[in-house]
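Q: Got a minute? One more chain.
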Amino acid sequence: MRLDIWLWAARFFKTRSLAKQAIEGGKIDVDGEPAKPAKTVHEGHRLRIRRGDERLEVTVVALSSMRGPAPVAQALYEETPESRATRERDREMRRLTGAGLAHPQGRPDKHARRQIRELKEGLE
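A: Always. Here it is, folded:
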């Protein structure tokens, strides 16, 4: 089975073309090696997947070329305990730090309101 089809069927990516772009961009490793979209995936392969800030390490448990409901898709792979712990720790850290959002000091003044209005009108 092709790697890009399996990633799509396992619901790691919304479309097969997004899966292909991620593979070509070096975001997916199979058994520690960079992969190509047509790479054949077998049960037991270990995949390292990077999506934004999220890092996953999964083992292929089953193969499917059809995209099904989420519970069926989750049965296709098994996430390693280390990966799950790291992901949970990172999620908690983002929650505690406010996910890097800078909250405004207060209401915008007249000058700032004009800049916001100009920006919004320029986008329309």
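A: The CA atoms of residues 40 and 106 lie 55 Å apart.
Q: Perfect, thanks.
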